[in-house]
Amino acid sequence: MSPRATIPLNSDISAALAMFFHGGAGPSHTTITSVLTGSGYGDNYVYNPNTQGTNKQQRVLTALRTAQREPTRARTLVDELLSALRVAGLIGGEASGENVDRLKRSLASAGWYLTEDGYLQPFGNVDLDTGGRPALEEQVERLRRSTTDPALLIGTAKELLESVSKFVLEELGMSVGNKMSYDQLWHLARERLGVLPQQVDPNLPGVDAIRAIHQSTWNIADQVNKLRNLQGTGHGRTLPNGVSEDLAMLVVREAATVADYMLTRLDREKG
Questions:
Q1: Count of C-beta atoms within a 10 Å radius of residue 204
Q2: How large is the angle between the packed helices 56-68 and 29-38, nearest 10 degrees?
Q3: Of 251, 268, 270, whose CA–CA distance to 161 is shortest?
Q4: What is the pLDDT of residue 125?
Q5: H or E segment at 227?
Q6: Strands 120-122, 112-114: parallel, antiparallel or unpaired by DSSP?
């Protein structure tokens, strides 16, 4: 199993998590103590009914701020806090509200998201070994629903399309080497699924239209890759000059549709 990715914990994420405990809300002090101690951030808190001690929000925020300086350990604390919030019914399932929205926004800006069940996942990083087809389908739906941070989603879309092409080839019995380029992966996946323009039966009615549609699957995949490459590397990516947010979201939606189409074709190919 792949190791857990290190979350880039920052002030916005810390503040968003701590807000679940604002004004005494959220899990109890006892639960917080268990979370902090279990993740290595114990604060020696002792309840005293005769004095006003540190409130719950302050305890959580102090631990998170410490964790920001220790990124290799921060993931454990965040996961434990999310677990406590799930148990309390504050995230995951039908949970909603400003605290949930704030947390989702802060995570998205750092390249992460909450699954429908309230678990932490990095955008675009589909682990085929552990997640398989369900992970791909969840990412497709997430891209379709997302409405914020199109610059981040461009990279997510590119990584999804690459993961889909690898999945298709592996499901059809082809070993995928690490040295294959994005273009090679997509050509081979389309070839195996019979969606290259030259593979369309020339005797079919509407052959030109069908070929053009099949070619468009590559056009979308190619343009997503080119836009992603124009963004450069590192965090805080912005959209390339001349690419508006609405145009970027159009590309992201189209990429999700292409990914879904390839998975549907795979189902047909496998019978």
A1: 11
A2: 20
A3: 251
A4: 58
A5: helix 207-230
A6: antiparallel
pLDDT tens sequence across 35-92 = 999 999 888 777 666 666 678 999 999 999 999 988 888 999 999 999 999 999 999 8
Amino acid, single-letter form, for residue 124:
G
Q: Which two tokens stand for residue 218?
A: 């590559």
- With tokens 């079919």, the residue in question is 204
Looking up tokens 């590119």, which residue turns up?
158
Which tokens in the block code for residue 134? Answer: 């369900």
Distances (CA, A) of 166 to 180, 184, 236: 10, 10, 27
Give the residue carrying structure tokens 């992603």: 228
Q: Helices marked H in 39-112 — which ranges?
A: 56-68, 71-87, 98-109
Nearest to 17 by CA among 54, 55, 53, 65: 65
Residue 127 corresponds to which tokens in the numbers above?
Answer: 């682990």
Q: Of the candidates 259, 191, 192, which has an alpha carbon nearest to the alpha carbon of residue 220?
A: 259
CA nearest to 223, candidates 258, 180, 265, 197? 258
Angle (CA) 173-124-230 rounded to 5° is 105
Tens digits of residue pLDDT in 94-138: 888 999 989 988 887 777 888 778 888 777 656 666 567 887 887
